[in-house]
Amino acid sequence: MTAAAEPTPDRLPDRLSWTREELLDSGAYAAPLIAGGVRCHGGFEADGRYRSPRTTHRAPAIRAWQAGLAREGHELLDIPRAAMPPQYPNVEQAALLLAHGVRDPIVRTLTIISIVEGFGAMIRDVRVPDLAALVVEPIEGTALTHLSGGLFEAHARDESGYKDEGGHKQMWEAARDLALEKPKVPGDVLMRFMGRNAARRRPERPFPQLDETLERMLAMMAQVLVVEVFAEGTFDWGMRLLSDPKVSAAPEAAGTMVGHIRADENPHVEYLRTALSEVRARTLRTVDGRTLAGRAVVDGLLHRILREITHNRPREQREDLREGLVAAMQAAAKPAALLEAFDALDAPWTPPARTGFEPDAS
Ligand SMILES: [Fe+2]
Ligand SMILES: [Fe+2]
């Protein structure tokens, strides 16, 4: 039990420097997590509680960096949950399809979620520049100095697994297979998903006066942070749908599996918002020898990303699903009536007028 753990120097709340090994350490578990026959990360305490992987030191470390930020009088940035686009199809629509034997669109949706999780491994390839040289103020004892020292690597392992241990990719596949009894996965899911992503243009550089590696890293972190925060909606959707006994063959096991993944995401959101807040509280050097407020950069990036995702994602999800929806509905007894009932459950959504990170926001 965590409560019984001895207080060690590692657990002091004001310790700000951690080794890579510590940030990647999971400690010992009483029982492993097995998902769909695959040994996954994380595991269970003696009392049966699930404990996320690589959090023995990473969790207290993040809390300590956040406390350090507060001690210096800086705020911890927060992504507004109101900006989170709803999942399409919504839970009621998805349950309706499954209840009528129309499984293909939901199998696709769940498979895409697992693919996206697996792509999280990319975070380990993000290049980290010499931050001490590019940031005016000192950065010792911050999350920023630990990005390449374990934080990105821990994140990558959580998402896609590590060595013979499964991660979120395998856990979502297991949840899907439990709830829908190992459904046949359409062969073109990955291809269609990749096609959609390839069509996206590479964004121009909003801050060309910055060191390019620094700008790319910050843009990637801001993008991943927003995706991680908005994933909360996907988890809620997954838990509600897969734990519905009317449509799920394993309501408890499948719902619980999604719950474990959701718990594991917490350190991702927390270290990213901490490190970005640390940049926001500092000044950055530009390539032409001037400086730029970190706040202008971080807010500028978040504003663009939030505006992009809130405006495009709902439309993209809709287009993706509807592409094969009518064809998939032929599996139902009365396809036309089903489509009508499906559309009647649609809940319109409009993104908020402001992101909260407008360049002029005070
Ligand atoms: Fe994940
Ligand atoms: Fe994550």
The residue ranges in which pLDDT falls below 50 over 5 or more consecutive positions are 1-7
Gross morphology is: globular
Q: Topology as H/E string?
A: HEEEHHHHHHHHHEEHH
- The beta-strand count equals 5
Bound molecules: fe (ii) ion
How does the helix and strand content classify structurally? mainly alpha
Can you describe what's shown?
- It is a single chain.
- The chain is built from twelve helices and five strands.
- By secondary structure, it is mainly alpha-helical.
- The strands form two sheets. The protein has a three-stranded antiparallel sheet with strand order 1-2-3. The chain has a two-stranded antiparallel ribbon with strand order 4-5.
- The model is unreliable at 1-7 (pLDDT under 50).
- The structure holds fe (ii) ion (2 copies).
Concise summary:
The chain is mainly alpha-helical and 362 residues long. It has helices at 20-23, 58-71, 91-99, 104-119, 131-134, 147-160, 168-179, 189-198, 212-242, 251-280, 294-328, 335-344, and strands at 31-35, 38-44, 50-51, 283-285, 291-293.
Write the layout of secondary structure elements.
Blueprint: H1 20-23, E1 31-35, E2 38-44, E3 50-51, H2 58-71, H3 91-99, H4 104-119, H5 131-134, H6 147-160, H7 168-179, H8 189-198, H9 212-242, H10 251-280, E4 283-285, E5 291-293, H11 294-328, H12 335-344
Antiparallel strand pairs: 1-2, 2-3, 4-5
Helix pairs in contact: 2-10, 3-9, 4-7, 6-10, 7-10, 9-10, 9-11, 10-11
The protein binds fe (ii) ion (FE2) (2 copies).
One fe (ii) ion (FE2) binds at residues 120, 159, 228, 265, 268.
